Amino acid sequence: MSAESAIWADSLSKTYCSGGAEVLVFKDLSLEVCRGERLAIIGESGAGKSTLMHLLGGLDRPSCGSIYYGGRNIVSLGDQELADFRNREIGFVWQIPSLLPEFTALENVMMPLLIRGVTSQEASRAAHERLHEVGLRTRESHRAGELSGGERQRVVLARALAAQPKVLLADEPTGSLDFRTGEMIIGLLNDLHAAHGLTSVFVTHNLGFAARCDRVLELRRGSLHTPSAIELQEAGVLIQDATRLGGGTYV
Ligand SMILES: Nc1ncnc2c1ncn2[C@@H]1O[C@H](COP(=O)(O)OP(=O)(O)O)[C@@H](O)[C@H]1O
Ligand SMILES: [Mg+2]
After folding, report:
1. Fewest Cβ atoms closer than 10 Å to its Cβ: which of 37, 41, 93, 190?
2. Angstrom distances, CA of residue 80 to CA of 7, 59, 72, 174, 242
């Protein structure tokens, strides 16, 4: 693990046991994410991208292997310590915006702060700031169930960043949105990444979005590969600045 590493997943294996059968998703998979990096992970449906994100985010545990944040192996934390770690250090965004529909946008964003024990006054102030940042100041008192899909995803972004995490994990954040709304969310993710000095891992099927990240990895047959520029071009990506794709194979 280098000093620049924000996350180091070392030799992860994951096997699900389902209906008496074992499903091996990956074995001995390693990944280092540098501080401040925007890493895109692509791959076919069923490749194990969400499984990897759940492990990186401490929402599930690997069958084998370690996940270091700084010098700390989160796999060895107890359930409560792990929940505290997630709440403090990681912001999550999923494909389907999961908000409490009966609560307002402001209350939804306040939630992780209240869980953390922050006073409601301070939580309200921070939530207000985050909603302002995602352009939803005028929707603060709307119930989440009354918002559009794009607005709900913006609330999710505000909530993910409410507790000022260092790491943002987003699993197909535009997967349930139309093209234009998706592009708006991508722009927002990039702006928030820079403004909050985040380390971000984005799982996406949007190869244009992937190409705008600092590095792209493809999860294929249980391993992470650097896709070649040709593979990405064949997949329809307009590579404007191939050097930003990382991996050192692009000229
Ligand atoms: N909770 C689970 N129990 C059993 N199998 C699972 C579970 N979650 C995912 N899988 C299986 O693991 C594989 C990878 O799934 P997933 O990580 O969701 O892939 P992706 O996000 O790349 O589409 C799939 O074959 C899927 O059926
Ligand atoms: Mg998935």
Report:
1. 190
2. 20, 12, 15, 31, 43
